[in-house]
Amino acid sequence: MGKKSPEAAGRRRRMMYRALALMLAAVLLLPLVPYAVAYVGGITNPNPGADLWRQVRQRETPPEVRTQVRGVDTGVLINARGESWRQFRMEQLIPWSGWFLGGMLVAIALFYLLRGRIRIDKGRSGILVQRFTVNQRLAHWFMAVVFTILGLTGLVLLYGRFVLIPLLGPEGFSVTAAACKEIHNLFGPIFPLAVLLILFYFVRGNGFRGVDFKWLAKGGGLLGGHASAGHFNMGQKLWFWGTLLFGLSLVVSGLILDFPVFGQGRPVMEWAHFSHGIAAVLFIGGAFAHSYIGTLGMEGALEAMTHGTVDANWAKEHHDLWYAQMEAEGKVGAVPGQEAPASSGSPETAGG
Amino acid sequence: MSERFEQGVAALRRLMDARIVSYFSSCVHCGLCAEACLFYTETGDPKYTPIYKLEPMRKMWRQENTFWGKLGVKLGLTEPLAEQDLADWETLVYDSCTLCGRCSMVCPVGNDIAYMIRKEREGMVAAGYAPDGMKEATRRALEIGSPMGVTLKTLRATLKGVERNTGLAIPVDAQGAEYMTLFSSMEVVNFPEYIESIARIFAAAGVSWTISSEAFEATNSGIQIGDSKAAGELVGRVVSAAEKLGVQYVISPECGHAFTAIRWEGANLIGRPLPFKVIHILELLEQLREEGRLKLEGHTDIRLTFHDPCQIVRRGGVVEQPRQLLREVATEFVEMRDHGVMNWCCGGGGGVSANERAEPLRLQAFQRKKKQLDELGVETMVTACANCRIILEEGIEHYGMDVQVTGLTELLAEHLAGPAES
Amino acid sequence: MFLDFVEGPLWYAAAAVFLVGVAWRLAAIARAGLKEDLSVPRTAGAPGAVATVFRRFLPHREFMRPAAFQMVAGYAFHIGLFVLVLFAAPHVEFIEQRILGFGWTPAPHWVFLLAANFAFAGLLLLWLRRMLDPVLRRISTLDDHIGTGLTFVVMFTGCMALFESHDFLRALHMLFVDLLLIYFPFSRLMHAFTFILSRGFTGATMARKGVSA
Questions:
Q1: What is the pLDDT of residues A173-210, one digit of tens each?
Q2: Most Cβ neighbours (<10 Å): which of A114, A217, B375, C121?
Q3: HEC states along chain A?
Q4: Fold observed for domain A82-116+127-328
């Protein structure tokens, strides 16, 4: 095989060139591999300063941080999400909820000016109908008191910085805020009991029926006209279910916030805070309307929750279906143990 | 301020002993006593709350025993107890309380509310505020010797009938007998069967007994109306009769408050220990049975229950004896849900039965007993108090129920074993 | 200043009024006297008195249902209150430094929290029922509401001061404690002592009759 073919020699030379070019390219590209790998899979940054900063800020990946301190999130030096939580609280939750609650009050005031107090059209008949039992009223007022305490202290914690510091000064606000925080955290766990009592004593009669949607279509008769209703109307039913919904949300988020000892980390706490704040504000707004219509807004409504009875004419005008049912059962006017309105404390002749 | 009213105030002041001062100091107005009172549970009217029936006495306590009360009265800020209060409370104190003492069993701070009402009645009666029916009964008891006006002549007539029916001689004024028996007027007039029964049982058991012609009446209207003087006078008659006959025991009959009057209040009313022992007829019968002197045979298979007379059971401590005796002769003895020391009153104790104007309320309160009976579905109710028996029968008739009422002693006499060998 | 006053002169004055007042009230009961009972007892009175003092901590079996509310709410409040008063860390410290000279192990925070929740829930339920139930409305007096209200405010301010971050809050709590102590002997709060006597009297009488009351 002494004689080389000129074709074969040319092929070999071309292969050599290609290999050389490939090697050259490989040499040139090799340093870029970490970059490429970093780009695709995200391992390390060759810049030690930036690497550290990223880990501290926890912006990118879960870092391999070791610490002697045992606990949830103890390896996190700066919580980057905290900034977005703070922004949400300061720039959205507080101003928007402030507008919402203020708006509710203005709307109620406007409603009062336009509609006035809703009177009993036919006046009082003097005949009483039992509307709520002692236990129902107890559940209601227990909720009312606990709700008010938690609501007020909660609002101080939310808006105190803006509203109270100008009024009380930083020192005064510090004392108030500390007190409110303790009360809020301490009364918090009583709230679930209040929600349970409400559920237990009011769930009967709060199921939705066809008549409720008619009531809703007529705007509850708030703006005139008559809307039929049973023991509870659609507004009350929505309020009942809303209480449970908001209540449940507040209970779950509140317990997460109040007892940070079950391994919940910051992200969970932040979500709990969002949901706690939003549910609370909506609930408080609803409570404004509820309190208004139950007291100033409607003649003869409050006594249902204080004495447990309502006037027959009130019942006919607002809960006609319920009244008809009570009448059929012979329960109108038969109110055992009801103190006569003009009771002087001296008993009348017994058994006479 | 009338003189009578002042007497009432003086009586209340005198009766404000350590117990009552402690009771008023302890009451936290929890309202639980209402749930124990049949006048409240059957009407739902809060004015029938037991502790509320003590408002006049509470006012007295407040103005005499508390700082705010004394100060308030002195400054004219607090209304002191007024005659009108007594007038207003008369019906609550007399018509809607049978002194049954159920409230005293449930008070969380341990107040004996029945005791307080018993004392409050002393003030009421001293001031002249008591129901006419009870005043009359007390007057008759003092003047004739019996609240129902039963005289010795009436008793002798009844005893004649008893002797005819039983064929036994009824000992009257038998010197040196061991036991002296008392009867309630109700038994003499309405239930002579009771007298026949004890005559038979005593003959069979060989009990040495007698009736005193001077003091045969067991009931004590003074206790019911709250007049200690009258009550003491009535107890005194029994004591002197018993002393004259030289008996060792005085038997209290099937009558509730009669037992309380002589057994628990007797010595205190006359101010010295009684010179004899007081024993309730049921205690004696159970004792005789245990000793083997009272022999019973046969039994009734009718489903029956026992109505506890408050003053004998809860306030008298004779709890187990009637049950023991009843089990001897009844195979189908069932208990009401609340029984024994937590029983419900018939509604006519504490003088309510002698108080005509209280009748409608009493019948309303009887619904409690009706519910208890309906729950059990029994046909026969045994009791051991002539007053309970009358009230129960009236209630049963009023509500058209089908229940027979009988006395325990009678039931036992029916099951007396063969001709006695004594 | 404020704190010095309520923990100094006012505290001593309040404690004195409390001690003297309670002693005076108890003496007044003793002074009212009791006539000797001449009836022949079935069983001795004294053991019956002791037995009833304890027995009345629970209602009779037959009365469990009617008494359920008062029992549950009442015990929630009373037990909660006792734990708070005797085992809250700042209280133990106060008792050690200012009253007895020795202390004991305070309750851990979670026990405190539980006790406070029970006490508040119980007191609120009892107080609200007093305002709503026709029977309780009929028999309640101003004293009942003042006593309950003061107790509530004392507990409330106590919880406000829980963090021990501000002297003012501690002083506020102490002020109401002083007021409560001063009010105590003149009020129905006395039941805390006299219930033993009342149960005892009734227990003794009923035991003499052979009834366990």
A1: 999 999 999 999 999 999 999 999 999 999 998 998 88
A2: C121
A3: CCCCCHHHHHHHHHHHHHHHHHHHHHHHHCCHHHHHHHHHHCCCCCCHHHHHHHHHHCCCCCCCCCCCCCCCCCCCCCCHHHHHHHHHHHHHHHHHHHHHHHHHHHHHHHHHHHHCCECCCCCCCCCEEECCCHHHHHHHHHHHHHHHHHHHHHHHHHHHHHHHHHHHHHHHHHHHHHHHHHHHHHHHHHHHHHHHHHHHHHCCCCCCCHHHHHHHHCHHHCCCCCCCCCCCCHHHHHHHHHHHHHHHHHHHHHHHHHCCCCCCCHHHHHHHHHHHHHHHHHHHHHHHHHHHHHCCCECCCHHHHHCCEEEHHHHHHHCHHHHHHHHHCCCECCCCCCCCCCCCCCCCCCCC
A4: Fumarate Reductase Cytochrome B subunit (1.20.950)
